[in-house]
C-alpha cells in the first residue's frame, strides 16, 4: 500500500505558498494531511478520511496535529484520495479520438496501426479538431464520416453530445507517488496516460486537482470496447499524486484549463520517450465533464475525475512501425509546474504489491484508532 517518502523534486515549485491535501502512512495507519504555508498537519482527528476532509473545506490546517515542514516529512506518501469513486473521461482530445479508432480498426495489433493512422489523420484530423462536441457542425461531420465508412464509436464520444465516462478502479485501489504501477503480464501493447485529475465533493463542486496515470492496455481495448474493464482496471494500474492542490485565489480551474502536462518514460535499456498534453486543446471543458459525470447520480463520498489526455505515443521502441509499449523497469514521470511531479516505476500487475487494504481494513483501522466516533 505505501509508496515512497515524499521527494522534494516531486513538489510544485511554489509548494510553500499553496494549499495542499494528501495522505501519509503513519505508525498508526493512513492519515489525511493538509499542507499550508509549507507545513504539514495530520488531520485524522478532524476528519479521518480524505473524503470527509474534502466535505469540510475550507478549514484551517492548524486544526490538525503539526507534523513539520513538508520538505522534511519522512512518512510514506500514499495516493491522495481514499473513499472517492475513481472516474475517468476518455477521448476528450481529437488526437486521442484518432488513436482509439486506430486501436479499434487494428484490433489491438500494433503492426497494422501505422497505415490506419496515416489514413485517418488525413481524413478526419483537421475536421475533428474544429468542431464543438454535440453541435450541428459535429452532427454534419458524423454523417459525412458514416458515408465515408470511417465512423466509429470512439468518434461518437469525441464529437457527439455525450462524453465517455467510466469507472477506472475500485475505491482505495489507487497508488501514490513512488509506488509501482502495473500492466497485465499478457499485454503486448500498452502505455501510460498522463492526466490531470479533478477532486470533486459530494455536491459536485471541484475543490482541487492532482496528477494521474490512467495506465491503459491498447491491445485489450483495441480488440473490443467491451474489454475496457480489463484494459483499465488491474492491480496497481492507477496512480495519483503527489498531492491534491486545492483551489484558492492563486490556483483556480483556469490553471487546469491552461496546464501543460509533461511526460517522460525512461526505459531500462536506455530508451527515452518525451511527450506532452496541452489542456487548452481539450474538446470539452473540465467542468462540463464534471457535470456529465454527475448526471443523475449521487456520490456521497465525492469522486476523482481523470480528464483525459492528448498524449498518444507512436514513437517506435523496438521495431520500425511497431510504436511504443511499456517494458518492466520503465520509469514514468508526469509533471506540470503547479501540481508537481508524479513518478512511478513499471512492473507487471502480478508483480506489483497486492492490494490488500480495502474498505473493511480501513474501517477496522479507524475504529482501532478511535476515529469513528
Helical content (DSSP H or I, runs of 4+): 10-25%
Biggest sheet strand line-up:
4-3-2-1-12-10-9-15-5-6
Tell me about the biggest sheet? 10 strands, mixed
What is the CATH-assigned architecture of the largest domain? Alpha-Beta Complex
Name the overall outline.
globular
Structural class: alpha+beta
Task: Give a structural overview.
Belongs to the FAH family. Keywords: Hydrolase, Metal-binding. It holds the Pfam family FAA_hydrolase. InterPro entries: FAH, Fumarylacetoacetase-like_C, Fumarylacetoacetase_C_sf. With 373 residues, the chain is of the alpha+beta class. The protein has two domains: 8-92 and 163-368, Fumarylacetoacetate hydrolase, domain 2, CATH 3.90.850; 95-159, no CATH class. It is 24% helix and 27% strand. It has ten helices and 17 strands. A hairpin with a 4-residue loop joins strand 1 and strand 2 (30-36). Helix 2 packs antiparallel against helix 3 (113-130). The longest helix has 18 residues, at 113-130. The radius of gyration is 20 Å and the shape is globular.
Summarize the topology.
Blueprint: E1 19-25, E2 30-36, E3 39-42, H1 50-55, E4 65-69, E5 85-90, H2 94-106, H3 113-130, H4 136-147, H5 153-159, E6 164-169, E7 181-183, E8 190-191, E9 194-200, E10 206-214, E11 216-217, H6 218-223, H7 228-232, E12 238-246, H8 253-257, E13 260-266, E14 272-278, H9 286-294, E15 303-306, E16 331-336, E17 340-348, H10 359-368
Helix pairs in contact: 2-3, 2-5
Protein name: Fumarylacetoacetate hydrolase
GO molecular function: hydrolase activity; metal ion binding
Organism: Sphingobium chungbukense
Amino acid at each position: 500500500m505505501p509508496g515512497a517518502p515524499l521527494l522534494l523534486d516531486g513538489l510544485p515549485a511554489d509548494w510553500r505558498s499553496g494549499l495542499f491535501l494528501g495522505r501519509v502512512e503513519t505508525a498508526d495507519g493512513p492519515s489525511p494531511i493538509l499542507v499550508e504555508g509549507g507545513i504539514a498537519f495530520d488531520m485524522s482527528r478532524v476528519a479521518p478520511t480524505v473524503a470527509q476532509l474534502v466535505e469540510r473545506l475550507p478549514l484551517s490546517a492548524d486544526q490538525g496535529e503539526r507534523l513539520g515542514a513538508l520538505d522534511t516529512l519522512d512518512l510514506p506518501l500514499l495516493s491522495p484520495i481514499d473513499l472517492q469513486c475513481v472516474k475517468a473521461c476518455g477521448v476528450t482530445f481529437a488526437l486521442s479520438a484518432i488513436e482509439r479508432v486506430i486501436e479499434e480498426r487494428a484490433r489491438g495489433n500494433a503492426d497494422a496501426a501505422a497505415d490506419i493512422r496515416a489514413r485517418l489523420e488525413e481524413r478526419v484530423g483537421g475536421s475533428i479538431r474544429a468542431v464543438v462536441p454535440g453541435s450541428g457542425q459535429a452532427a454534419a461531420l458524423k454523417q459525412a464520416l458514416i458515408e465515408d465508412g470511417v465512423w466509429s464509436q470512439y468518434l461518437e464520444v469525441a464529437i457527439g453530445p455525450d462524453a465517455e465516462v467510466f469507472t477506472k478502479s475500485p475505491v482505495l485501489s489507487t497508488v501514490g507517488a513512488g509506488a509501482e504501477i502495473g500492466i497485465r503480464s499478457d499485454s503486448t501493447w500498452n502505455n501510460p496516460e498522463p492526466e490531470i485529475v479533478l477532486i470533486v465533493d459530494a455536491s459536485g463542486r471541484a475543490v482541487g486537482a492532482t496528477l494521474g496515470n490512467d495506465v491503459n492496455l491498447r491491445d485489450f481495448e483495441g480488440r473490443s470496447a467491451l474489454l475496457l474493464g480489463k484494459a483499465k482496471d488491474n492491480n496497481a494500474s492507477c496512480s495519483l499524486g503527489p498531492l491534491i492542490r486545492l483551489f484558492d485565489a492563486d490556483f483556480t480551474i483556469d490553471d487546469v484549463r491552461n496546464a501543460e502536462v509533461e511526460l517522460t518514460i525512461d526505459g531500462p535499456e536506455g530508451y527515452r520517450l518525451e511527450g506532452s498534453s496541452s489542456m487548452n486543446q481539450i474538446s470539452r471543458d473540465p467542468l462540463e465533464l464534471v457535470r456529465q459525470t454527475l448526471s443523475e447520480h449521487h456520490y456521497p463520498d465525492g469522486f476523482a475525475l481523470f480528464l483525459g489526455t492528448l498524449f498518444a505515443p507512436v514513437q517506435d521502441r523496438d521495431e520500425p512501425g511497431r510504436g511504443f509499449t511499456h517494458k518492466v523497469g520503465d520509469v514514468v514521470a508526469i509533471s506540470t509546474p503547479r501540481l508537481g511531479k508524479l513518478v512511478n516505476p513499471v512492473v507487471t500487475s502480478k508483480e506489483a504489491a497486492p492490494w490488500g487494504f480495502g474498505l473493511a481494513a480501513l474501517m477496522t483501522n479507524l475504529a482501532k484508532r478511535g476515529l469513528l466516533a
